[in-house]
Amino acid sequence: MSSIFERTLHAADDARRALLSPAGVMGLAVEGVWVTLHLALYPWGLIEDRLDEASHLGVSHLSPVQRGLIVGDVEAAGTPIILIHGVVDNRSIFTLLRRALRNRGFGRMYALNYSPFTDDITEVAQRLGTLIDDVCEQTGYERVHIIGHSMGGLVARYYVQKLGGDRHVHTVCTLGTPHNGTVPARFVPWPVIQQMRPTSDLIESLKESAPGCRTRFIAFWSDLDQLVIPQRNARIDHADLRSRNVFMRGVGHMSLPVDRRVVHEISTALAQLDHDGTMLAQGVTSIDSTPGRGSRDSATASRPGRNAAAGA
Fold first, then answer.
1. What SS3 class is residue 273?
2. How far apart are CA 305 and CA 302, in angstroms?
3. At what angle are helices 95-103 and 64-72 packed, to 10 degrees?
């Protein structure tokens, strides 16, 4: 217990230093603006996606950048992307990210909405499997990509590791996902929140071996994440998973899906990865881990830079 208390104090001290830094102050301002905008968009996100309306392929209306992805790599541009929001949220959290990816040529995106009042993580993962089956049948693609924000990343991991989803999922990108749990969940008496405790049965199950898992993971984490505590718990540390952890300096939990650097990393990875996750173009960071598999941190996206919204 004392060890947990010490780690919590250390995490709180790290969070305080991050918040008081110039990047932290800017990140907090961006977080406030985006949360306000997100609240205005929230009612529209309650409407479910329709599979027949979620595809936007074709080149006649696209810019040269968009056409370049589609003409240069039809498979990358057309591979379906599944978006999974976090707890007490809906697909509106991806409004700007969705627009930014479409502007970069990705034409098929589908959002999974779920209710934290009636679902838990394992049930949502089963619904995710049904959605992916439907998407693959409609599009003819055998594999999809998943982008999960917060709890949505745990849904994706559970599906991949526990429900055989690695045969259908090429890449999972998680944004501020408590892969190793989050301490505040201990104090919220809500079943789905309790599943995100550091010692919950679900978190422990994801630590179990996953030999031969074919899915690649990219986990974005930030020193300014106010909901994942300690912040490093948003990293993936698993001996059997091929993963890369990308550190984002000065980005709040809700702002991760709209950060320009996050969008750039995601779009670059999904546009350049071959079937086995190897690097196709020079200068593109491979998501392969070290020779011993497991995970590593990348500073690719942590360089100082504009932290504005991604929709531009």
1. strand
2. 8
3. 70
**Residues 233, 239, 243, 246, Cα dihedral to 10°:** 40
**Would strands 216-222 and 169-175 be described as parallel, antiparallel, or unpaired?**
parallel
Determine what percent of the chain falls in helix, strand and coil, rounding each to the nearest 5.
45, 15, 40
pLDDT tens for the chain, 312 residues: list them.
Answer: 555 555 555 555 555 555 545 655 565 655 666 566 656 655 565 566 666 555 555 545 556 555 555 545 667 888 999 999 998 888 889 988 999 999 888 989 999 999 878 779 999 999 999 999 999 999 999 999 999 999 999 999 999 999 999 999 999 999 999 999 999 999 999 999 999 999 999 999 999 999 999 999 999 999 999 999 999 999 999 999 999 999 999 999 999 999 999 999 999 999 875 655 444 443 333 444 333 355 556 655 444 444 455 544
Structure tokens of 245?
């952890």
Task: Give the contacts of 265 (CB within 8 A, at least 6 positions apart).
Answer: 218, 220, 246, 300, 301
Contact 83, 147 (CB under 8 A): yes
Contact in structure between 254 and 35 (CB atoms under 8 Å): yes
| Residue 55, Cβ density class (10 Å: 0-12 exposed, 13-18 middle, ≥19 buried) | middle
Q: Where are the domains of the chain?
A: 2-298
| CATH, domain 2-298, list 3.20.20.70, 3.40.50.1820, 3.40.50.12580, 3.20.20.105 | 3.40.50.1820
Polymer length of the chain: 312
